[in-house]
Amino acid sequence: MASVLILEDDFELAKAWQQALEASGHTATIARSSQEAIEKVKRNRFDAAVVDLMIDTPPDSEPDSGIHFLRTLRNLEMPMPKLIGVSGYYGSDKGEMAANLLKVYGVHKIVLKPFEPAVLIQLI
């Protein structure tokens, strides 16, 4: 079974994904910012990461995003065997922009929110 990092700012959503993954035999760790996710990757080995493209941040903090996490992984040469991007962005392109942007960083699949946690289990 896989060890999965979940980068998602919506804690309730991340918790639901974590519970579904763990119920299927995987281990899952939640990070709520790209910096927290990078620190966890430096300390632990993960087989996969579920990365939210758009991360809400408080007005007084630095902007954050799943792309920041992916860029940092690449710059630090910290490979991740499987990357799954998630996005609530639909816009007029139905997620094509997110798919193209994340493709640059080696993302295997983009999943548009909302989706059932079973989708993650299938992708992992």
Structure description:
By secondary structure, this protein is an alpha/beta fold. It has five helices and five strands, in the order βαβαβαβαβα. It has helices at residues 11-23, 34-43, 66-75, 96-103, 117-123, and strands at residues 3-7, 27-31, 48-52, 82-87, 109-112. β4 (82-87), α4 (96-103) and β5 (109-112) form a beta-alpha-beta unit. α2 packs parallel to α3. The longest helix is centred in the N-terminal third of the chain and has 13 residues, at 11-23. The chain is globular, with a radius of gyration of 13 Å. It starts with a strand and ends with a helix.
Order of helices and strands: EHEHEHEHEH
Instruction: Give the rounded overall mean pLDDT.
Output: 87
Percentage of residues in DSSP E strands: 15-25%
What would you call the shape? Answer: globular
The counted number of beta strands is 5
Regions with little confidence, pLDDT below 50 for 5+ residues: none
Structural class computed from helices and strand pairing: alpha/beta
Strand order of the largest sheet: 2-1-3-4-5
Q: Compute the separation of the termini in Å.
A: 9 Å
Fraction of residues in helices? 25-40%
| CA-atom Rg in angstroms | 13 Å
Q: Enumerate how many helices there are, as a single number.
A: 5
Note the main sheet.
Answer: 5 strands, parallel
List its salient traits.
single chain; 124 residues; alpha/beta
